[in-house]
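Quick note —
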Amino acid sequence: MKKINKVYLVIASIVLMFSIKSNAQIVKAEIRATGLTCSMCSNAINKQLKALPEVINVETDLNTNTFTVTLKEGNELSPKTFKEKVEKAGFFIGSLVITAKAETISKSPYILVNDKKDTTEVVKFQVVDKGYVTEKEFKKLSKSYKDISTYVANSEDDFHIKILN
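Predicted structure written out below.
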Protein backbone atom coordinates (compact mmCIF):
# COMPACT_ATOMS: atom_id res chain seq x y z
CA MET A 1 0.00 0.00 0.00
CA LYS A 2 2.84 2.42 0.84
CA LYS A 3 4.44 1.77 -2.53
CA ILE A 4 1.22 2.74 -4.35
CA ASN A 5 0.94 5.98 -2.34
CA LYS A 6 4.51 6.88 -3.28
CA VAL A 7 3.74 6.27 -6.95
CA TYR A 8 0.66 8.51 -6.74
CA LEU A 9 2.72 11.16 -4.96
CA VAL A 10 5.39 11.08 -7.66
CA ILE A 11 2.79 11.24 -10.44
CA ALA A 12 0.95 14.08 -8.71
CA SER A 13 4.23 15.98 -8.27
CA ILE A 14 5.12 15.59 -11.96
CA VAL A 15 1.66 16.72 -13.08
CA LEU A 16 1.80 19.73 -10.76
CA MET A 17 5.29 20.65 -11.94
CA PHE A 18 4.20 20.72 -15.59
CA SER A 19 0.85 22.38 -14.96
CA ILE A 20 2.27 25.38 -13.14
CA LYS A 21 2.69 28.17 -15.62
CA SER A 22 6.27 29.29 -16.07
CA ASN A 23 7.15 32.74 -14.79
CA ALA A 24 9.40 33.38 -17.76
CA GLN A 25 8.62 36.99 -18.27
CA ILE A 26 11.42 38.89 -19.97
CA VAL A 27 12.87 37.29 -23.09
CA LYS A 28 15.22 40.09 -24.14
CA ALA A 29 16.28 43.54 -22.90
CA GLU A 30 17.80 46.26 -25.06
CA ILE A 31 19.65 48.73 -22.87
CA ARG A 32 21.06 51.97 -24.25
CA ALA A 33 23.52 53.29 -21.70
CA THR A 34 24.63 56.88 -21.23
CA GLY A 35 27.98 58.24 -20.12
CA LEU A 36 30.16 55.73 -21.95
CA THR A 37 33.36 57.13 -23.46
CA CYS A 38 35.38 54.06 -24.42
CA SER A 39 35.30 50.29 -24.85
CA MET A 40 36.46 49.81 -21.25
CA CYS A 41 33.23 51.51 -20.14
CA SER A 42 31.17 49.04 -22.14
CA ASN A 43 33.20 46.17 -20.69
CA ALA A 44 32.17 47.24 -17.18
CA ILE A 45 28.47 47.10 -18.09
CA ASN A 46 28.94 43.89 -20.05
CA LYS A 47 30.59 42.24 -17.05
CA GLN A 48 27.77 43.31 -14.70
CA LEU A 49 25.07 42.02 -17.03
CA LYS A 50 26.82 38.70 -17.70
CA ALA A 51 27.12 38.16 -13.94
CA LEU A 52 23.36 37.57 -13.79
CA PRO A 53 22.69 33.80 -13.79
CA GLU A 54 19.59 34.36 -15.94
CA VAL A 55 21.63 35.82 -18.83
CA ILE A 56 22.35 33.65 -21.87
CA ASN A 57 24.15 36.26 -23.95
CA VAL A 58 25.02 39.97 -24.10
CA GLU A 59 25.63 41.62 -27.47
CA THR A 60 27.21 45.07 -27.46
CA ASP A 61 26.91 47.76 -30.12
CA LEU A 62 29.63 50.33 -29.38
CA ASN A 63 28.27 52.76 -31.99
CA THR A 64 24.96 53.17 -30.14
CA ASN A 65 26.07 52.07 -26.65
CA THR A 66 23.36 49.43 -26.75
CA PHE A 67 23.48 46.12 -24.90
CA THR A 68 21.11 43.40 -26.06
CA VAL A 69 20.62 40.90 -23.26
CA THR A 70 19.09 37.50 -24.04
CA LEU A 71 17.63 35.73 -21.00
CA LYS A 72 16.91 32.17 -19.97
CA GLU A 73 13.35 30.92 -19.87
CA GLY A 74 11.90 30.83 -16.37
CA ASN A 75 13.59 34.00 -15.13
CA GLU A 76 11.79 36.41 -12.82
CA LEU A 77 13.86 39.52 -13.52
CA SER A 78 12.37 43.00 -13.45
CA PRO A 79 13.54 46.20 -15.15
CA LYS A 80 15.00 47.27 -11.80
CA THR A 81 17.64 44.53 -12.07
CA PHE A 82 19.01 46.01 -15.31
CA LYS A 83 19.04 49.52 -13.86
CA GLU A 84 20.95 48.34 -10.79
CA LYS A 85 23.54 46.48 -12.88
CA VAL A 86 24.18 49.43 -15.22
CA GLU A 87 24.45 51.84 -12.28
CA LYS A 88 26.76 49.45 -10.42
CA ALA A 89 29.08 49.69 -13.44
CA GLY A 90 29.01 53.49 -13.01
CA PHE A 91 26.61 54.48 -15.81
CA PHE A 92 22.95 55.24 -16.46
CA ILE A 93 20.17 53.91 -18.67
CA GLY A 94 19.10 56.18 -21.51
CA SER A 95 16.54 53.71 -22.82
CA LEU A 96 15.27 50.28 -21.79
CA VAL A 97 13.23 48.32 -24.32
CA ILE A 98 12.02 44.91 -23.20
CA THR A 99 10.64 41.97 -25.13
CA ALA A 100 8.49 39.82 -22.84
CA LYS A 101 5.63 37.38 -22.80
CA ALA A 102 2.35 39.24 -23.19
CA GLU A 103 0.96 38.15 -19.82
CA THR A 104 3.82 40.05 -18.15
CA ILE A 105 2.28 43.46 -18.76
CA SER A 106 -1.13 42.48 -17.45
CA LYS A 107 0.33 42.04 -13.97
CA SER A 108 1.47 44.46 -11.33
CA PRO A 109 3.95 46.24 -11.17
CA TYR A 110 3.54 47.09 -14.89
CA ILE A 111 1.33 50.06 -15.70
CA LEU A 112 0.45 50.77 -19.32
CA VAL A 113 0.67 54.47 -20.29
CA ASN A 114 -0.51 54.22 -23.89
CA ASP A 115 -3.69 52.75 -25.32
CA LYS A 116 -1.93 50.45 -27.76
CA LYS A 117 -3.19 46.89 -27.29
CA ASP A 118 -1.19 43.93 -28.48
CA THR A 119 -2.64 40.48 -28.92
CA THR A 120 0.58 38.69 -29.80
CA GLU A 121 2.25 36.16 -27.53
CA VAL A 122 5.35 38.32 -27.11
CA VAL A 123 5.21 42.09 -26.64
CA LYS A 124 7.89 44.77 -26.98
CA PHE A 125 7.68 47.78 -24.65
CA GLN A 126 9.75 50.65 -23.29
CA VAL A 127 10.01 51.48 -19.59
CA VAL A 128 9.40 55.24 -19.34
CA ASP A 129 10.10 55.89 -15.65
CA LYS A 130 12.83 58.10 -14.22
CA GLY A 131 16.13 56.25 -14.40
CA TYR A 132 15.03 54.29 -17.47
CA VAL A 133 15.03 57.24 -19.88
CA THR A 134 17.25 60.33 -20.12
CA GLU A 135 16.52 63.28 -17.81
CA LYS A 136 15.42 65.39 -20.78
CA GLU A 137 12.99 62.73 -21.95
CA PHE A 138 11.68 62.18 -18.42
CA LYS A 139 10.81 65.88 -18.08
CA LYS A 140 8.90 65.72 -21.37
CA LEU A 141 7.12 62.50 -20.37
CA SER A 142 6.20 63.93 -16.96
CA LYS A 143 4.12 66.58 -18.72
CA SER A 144 2.46 63.98 -20.96
CA TYR A 145 1.66 61.59 -18.11
CA LYS A 146 0.78 64.16 -15.41
CA ASP A 147 -2.73 62.66 -15.14
CA ILE A 148 -1.36 59.23 -14.20
CA SER A 149 -1.03 59.46 -10.42
CA THR A 150 1.38 56.53 -10.13
CA TYR A 151 3.71 58.13 -12.71
CA VAL A 152 3.75 61.42 -10.82
CA ALA A 153 4.44 59.53 -7.55
CA ASN A 154 7.62 58.11 -9.16
CA SER A 155 7.65 54.87 -7.14
CA GLU A 156 10.60 52.56 -7.78
CA ASP A 157 8.23 49.60 -7.43
CA ASP A 158 6.04 50.57 -10.42
CA PHE A 159 7.12 50.25 -14.04
CA HIS A 160 5.26 52.50 -16.46
CA ILE A 161 5.47 51.04 -19.93
CA LYS A 162 4.71 52.11 -23.47
CA ILE A 163 3.96 49.30 -25.94
CA LEU A 164 6.04 49.62 -29.11
CA ASN A 165 4.81 46.83 -31.41
